[in-house]
C-alpha cells in the first residue's frame, strides 16, 4: 500500500487498529497528504514538516542542513507533528505573524516551552542559510481539547492538523 511517496507493509498498518499508538511514518504520510490537498488550489499555502525534525532537536543535533525548508516565509501555516516520550502533539507556526503554538492534548507548559525554544534555535540557524528576517517569534496559546485516555494523542494530532489546514 502507498500513501503519497511512502510504501507500507501490513505490519506498518497494524498501528491503525484498536488502541495502538500511531507510528511516525503513518503520521508524516497522512499529514503530507493533507498538505498536498490543501495546496492543490493554491489558496492555502501549508507546509508540514517531518516529525523527524523534532527528533533531531531532542537528540541535540545541530546538523540541520538537510532540514532547511526554503518555503517557510511563503507558508500561511506550518505544522510540525512531534512525538516525544510516547506522546504526540502538534506545533503550529504562522510566519506572517511570527507566532508558534503548541497544540497538546496532554497540556504541558514545560513541553511547550522546550519545543518553542527548539523552534527558536532552529529558525536562528536556518536564518544563517536562508535569510528571511524571521527571527522574532512569539509563543501563543490556543484552547485545546484534552484527551481522556492514554493512546489517542496521534489521532488528536492528525485531527488538529486537519482542522488547521481545511
Number of strand segments: 7
Strand content: 15-25%
* Strands ordered across the widest β-sheet: 3-4-5-6-7
CATH superfamily: Adenoviral Proteinase, Chain A
Uncertain segments: none
Shape: globular
Q: How many domains comprise the coordinates?
A: 1
The major sheet is characterized as: 5 strands, mixed
User: Any idea of the CATH class?
Assistant: Alpha Beta
Helix content: 25-40%
Contiguous helical run count: 5
By CATH, the topology is: Adenoviral Proteinase, Chain
Tell me what the CATH architecture is.
3-Layer(aba) Sandwich
Order of helices and strands: EEHHEHEEEHEH
Radius of gyration: 16 Å
Please report the distance between the alpha carbons of the first and last residues: 25 Å
Average predicted local confidence, pLDDT:
83
Structural class: alpha/beta
